[in-house]
Design brief:
Layout (H helix, E strand, L loop, with lengths): L5 E3 H8 L3 H9 L6 E3 L2 E5 H15 L3 E2 L1 H7 L4 H9 L6 E3 L2 E5 H11 L3
Antiparallel strand pairs: 1-3, 2-3, 4-6, 5-6
Helix pairs in contact: 1-3
Length: 115
Amino acid sequence: MEKEKYMTLKELTELAQTPYATVKRDIDNGLLPAYKVGRKYFIAVKDGEKYAAHKKEILSTKGYTIKELQAILPLSYAFIIELIKSQKLHAIKSGRRYIIPHAEFCRFLKESSLK
């Protein structure tokens, strides 16, 4: 039986190129399984690598933040959040921010146009 290997939170933040607070929040929200021993967190290497790959995929997504959308369309932050929550506008959550993929924004504009 092979023993499972673990990485520290610091090692994972470097691997995922993600801020410490984001990884900690994902652990607290149950999105990333981890063990806490004293004040240190340990993540299984397989879980850490999967998490890092997902975070890198999100970072490579070409799209707009809500503030960038506000510069394009005269809509309030609250209205854009409501569109996202009602799933009329699909977005990817990355930490505390949302990324609206370029193709999704084009689809939204096309469906919103007057015919």
